[in-house]
Amino acid sequence: MNKVRIAPSLLAADFGNMQRDVEMVNSSKADWHHLDVMDGVFVPNISYGMPVIKSIATHATKPLDVHLMIIDPDRYIKTFAALGANILTVHYEACLHLNRTIQAIKAEGMMAGVALNPHTNINLLEDSIADIDLVCVMSVNPGYGGQKFIENTFAKVRSLKELINEKKAKTLIEIDGGVNAGNAKALVEAGADVLVAGSFVFNSKDPGGTISHIANIANS
Ligand code: DX5
Ligand code: ZN
Questions:
Q1: What is the atom index within ligand 1 of the atom nearest the CA of 45?
Q2: Which residues share a beta bridge with 112?
Q3: pLDDT of residue 107
Q4: Exposure string over 61-72, b if 16+ CB within 10 A, otherwise e
Q5: How many CB atoms lie within 10 A of CB 28?
Q6: Pocket of ligand 1 (CB under 6 A)
Q7: Which of 60, 168, 193, 204 has the least CB density, counted as fewest CB within 10 Å?
Q8: What's the rounded Cα separation, in Å, for the pair 216 and 220?
Q9: Domain limits at 141?
Q10: CA of residue 42 to ligand 1 center, whole Å
C-alpha cells in the first residue's frame, strides 16, 4: 500500500504565529500544508487569501495543498499557481465547466483536485475521474474547522475507491473535516490516501507529536 499522506490544515493554526506553525509542519511527519481559502459566498465564512498564502509559501518547505471554497475558481487558477500551489482543489458545486477547469489547473503544472460537498454523489465524477489527480471528500459541510465528522463519509469513500479502480484511474482520495486519531485507520481502510486534520492537530498540546501519532495510525 502507498504511504498515507497527512496534510495539517493551517486554518486551525495560530494566525499570530503563522511562521512558527508553518515551521512546525515543516519539521513534522506531515506531507503537505493544507490551505483553506473561503470567500464568504460559496461558504458562509471568510478565511484568508493571496497575501497570507504568499507569506506562508516563503516559510513552507512541503507541497502546498490549496483548497478553494470559492465560486467561479477559474478566475484565480493562474494566481494560485504563481503563489506556489502544488495541488489546487476546486469544488464540484462551484464549477460550471469542470472539465475545462481541471485542464486549466494542469496546464499551470499543478495537480488538479475536485472537492465534493457531503450531499454530492460520487457518481457525478464518473465521466471525469480519469482526469482528476485528487478527490477531496468533504466529511463536514465546508466553511469551518472543528466540526463533527459525518459518518456517511465511509460509504462514500468506498464507492469512490471502486469507481477509481473500475476506471483504472490514479486519483488520490483526500478526506477533509473532523479527521482524528479515532477515525483515521477506518478511513484508510475505506480507501483514503490523504488525511487533512486541522483542530485535532493544532488544538493538541503537542501538534508535532499529534501529526506523528495520526501518521503512524494511518500507516500501521
Ligand atoms: C473545512 C476545511 C477544513 C478544515 C478542517 O471547511 O476545508 O480543511 O480546516 O478542520 P477540522 O480538521 O478541524 O475539521
Ligand atoms: Zn480544507
A1: 6
A2: 88
A3: 98
A4: ebbbbbbbbbee
A5: 19
A6: 9, 11-12, 34, 36, 67, 140, 142-147, 176-179, 196-200
A7: 168
A8: 6
A9: 5-218
A10: 15
Predicted confidence at residue 8, as pLDDT, reads: 98
Q: pLDDT at residue 1 above 80?
A: no
- Is the pLDDT confidence value at 2 over 90? no
What does pTM read for this prediction? 0.98
CATH code where residue 17 lies: 3.20.20.70
Only one residue has cell 478527490, namely 135
Which residue, among 111, 204, 197, 193, has the nearest Cα to 149 in the 3D structure?
197
pLDDT per residue as tens digits for the range 11-47: 999 999 999 999 999 999 999 999 999 999 999 999 9
By the 10 Å C-beta count (0-12 exposed, 13-18 middle, 19+ buried), 17 is classed as exposed
Q: Which three cell numbers stand for residue 149?
A: 465528522
> How much distance in Å is there from the Cα of 136 to the middle of ligand 2?
8
